[in-house]
């Protein structure tokens, strides 16, 4: 189906632990909490834990969908390839485009808190300057751009260091929050229920914001061509990563609800973790959590760059975007043209953000717009998994539940949240979210007319793909019998 270039990505660079770290870093625990807690509280009040929980259940359905699709089609384009080969190439292209557009917008939304918080470590007045914060954030972005350009091995080493320190700080503060005696309000189990939402639209808006928290774990699928035993590793790492960050997100959201007053949460904006840290450990805690957020932001810039450049690489390789995007650097084994293209586009957005106003407003609109894109391409992937495995779903109850019902419910939830939230979002968020999707129609039409083989796909069918994988694998008969669970795992 795809037209190849002279070189591919470097295989077998990432192991299982590396890939789990990438999944966690992709979801960016500290950054997501800092950038989104106040936004979520503004949308649903004390129902933040409920939004995270109700979004986590269908999100696991999408994780299962990705795990199963990755078993039958190892492709750096992930959903772009899977949706195109099961539903329709047009939908597949838009799925890949949604990820590329969302990730490019995130370069600014992710870098702004890094810039603001870096300045806040030295001078709070400097942090209030949007142009200055944008400039510092752009420097962090360029640093990560260089790391990603340097190859997968360098990227993994940098990620292990940054994420390791971040996780240590966050876990210490989870324990400290439990032991802290000061309370702004009493803990209430109703925060995990549906009673605090303002109708279906309010619930959908909360779910869309919660989806942004989790977004990024799917970097494991975009790295599948560079992962050892990726047919199993990518899906397993995503499941472990999403489970881990879910627990962290809920713990910190409850801590914020309990320890900070409502007006304090809203006024803190993207500095909410620093305020929480000061409440727990005055004088030191705020700065430590700021360091965690900076590390998390830089780490997730790296994983997002990996996602978008691998997606562009796959699209260039298939000639659905300029073929140069599919070129791989001879020494570093990275798609260097895609890296350069993303860097140039992001720097243009940095310039626009510097003149756009407050950091908090930019973050709010960007989070909502990115949430639309996420819901769109996750929803399509969930449907694609059911279609690809349709001939295997009735072979066992486990296969029916984990391969059919759960991914389909996840897809339905994501697409419902997409539609329902349209009436709740600001004009700017809608313009970015829907306008970004619509912009993809132009290159799609151009390269379809040029005759890319992507638009004449070999259909993706799980039963045939798994049979072919079994026949090509050099395993003993006993191992082959044990591997019949291949079709039903996850």
Structural topology:
Layout: H1 16-27, H2 29-44, H3 48-72, H4 79-86, H5 89-120, H6 124-127, H7 130-149, H8 152-179, H9 199-214, H10 219-222, H11 230-259, H12 262-268, H13 272-280, H14 285-317, H15 336-354, H16 359-388, H17 397-420, H18 427-439, H19 441-449, H20 462-472, H21 477-482
Helix pairs in contact: 1-8, 1-11, 1-14, 2-9, 2-11, 2-12, 2-14, 3-9, 3-11, 3-16, 3-17, 4-5, 4-16, 5-7, 5-14, 5-15, 5-16, 7-14, 7-15, 8-11, 8-14, 9-16, 9-17, 13-14, 14-15, 16-17, 16-18
Characterization of the model:
- With 490 residues, the protein is mostly helical.
- It starts with 15 loop residues before the first helix and ends in an 8-residue tail after the last helix.
- The model is unreliable at 1-6 and 474-488 (pLDDT under 50).
- The longest helix is centred in the middle third of the chain and has 33 residues, at 285-317.
- The protein has 21 helices and no strands.
- The chain has helices spanning 16-27, 29-44, 48-72, 79-86, 89-120, 124-127, 130-149, 152-179, 199-214, 219-222, 230-259, 262-268, 272-280, 285-317, 336-354, 359-388, 397-420, 427-439, 441-449, 462-472, 477-482.
- The radius of gyration is 22 Å and the shape is globular.
């Amino acid at each position: 189906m795809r037209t190849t270039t002279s070189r591919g990505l470097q295989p077998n660079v990432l192991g299982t632990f590396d890939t789990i770290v990438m999944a966690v870093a992709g979801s960016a625990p500290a950054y997501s909490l800092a950038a989104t807690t106040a936004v979520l509280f503004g949308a649903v009040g004390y129902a933040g834990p409920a939004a995270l929980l109700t979004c986590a259940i269908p999100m696991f359905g999408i994780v299962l969908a990705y795990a199963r699709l990755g078993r039958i089609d190892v492709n750096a384009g992930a959903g772009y390839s899977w949706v195109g080969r099961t539903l329709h190439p047009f939908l597949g292209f838009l799925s890949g485009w949604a990820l590329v557009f969302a990730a490019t917008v995130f370069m600014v939304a992710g870098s702004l808190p890094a810039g603001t918080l870096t300045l806040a470590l030295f001078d709070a007045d400097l942090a209030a300057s949007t142009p200055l914060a944008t400039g510092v954030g752009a420097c962090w972005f360029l640093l990560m751009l260089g790391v990603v350009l340097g190859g997968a091995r360098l990227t993994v080493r940098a990620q292990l260091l940054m994420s390791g320190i971040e996780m240590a700080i966050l876990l210490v503060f989870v324990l400290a929050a439990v032991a802290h005696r000061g309370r702004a309000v009493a803990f209430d189990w109703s925060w995990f229920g549906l009673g605090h939402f303002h109708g279906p639209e309010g619930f959908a808006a909360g779910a869309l914001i919660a989806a942004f928290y989790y977004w990024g774990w799917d970097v494991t699928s975009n790295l599948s061509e560079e992962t050892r035993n990726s047919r199993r590793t990518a899906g397993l790492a995503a499941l472990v990563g999403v489970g881990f960050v879910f627990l962290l997100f809920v713990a910190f959201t409850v801590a914020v609800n309990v320890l900070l007053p409502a007006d304090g949460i809203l006024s803190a904006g993207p500095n909410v973790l620093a305020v929480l840290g000061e409440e727990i450990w005055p004088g030191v805690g705020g700065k430590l959590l700021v360091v965690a957020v900076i590390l998390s932001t830089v780490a997730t810039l790296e994983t997002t760059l990996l996602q978008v450049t691998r997606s562009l690489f796959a699209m260039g390789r298939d000639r659905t975007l300029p073929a140069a995007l599919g070129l791989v650097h001879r020494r570093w084994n990275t798609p260097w043209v895609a890296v350069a293209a993303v860097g140039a586009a992001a720097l243009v957005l940095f310039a626009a953000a510097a003149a756009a106003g407050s950091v908090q407003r930019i973050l709010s609109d960007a989070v909502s717009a990115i949430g639309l894109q996420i819901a769109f391409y996750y929803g399509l992937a969930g449907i694609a998994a059911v279609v690809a495995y349709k001939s295997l779903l009735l072979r066992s109850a486990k296969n029916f539940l984990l391969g059919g019902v759960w991914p389909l419910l996840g897809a339905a939830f994501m697409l419902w949240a997409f539609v329902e939230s349209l009436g709740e979002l600001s004009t700017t968020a809608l313009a970015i979210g829907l306008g970004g999707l619509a912009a993809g129609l132009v290159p799609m039409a151009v390269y379809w007319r040029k005759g890319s083989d992507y638009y004449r796909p070999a259909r993706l069918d799980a039963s045939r793909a798994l049979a072919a994988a079994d026949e090509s694998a050099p395993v003993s008969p006993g191992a082959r019998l044990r591997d019949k669970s291949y079709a039903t795992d996850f």
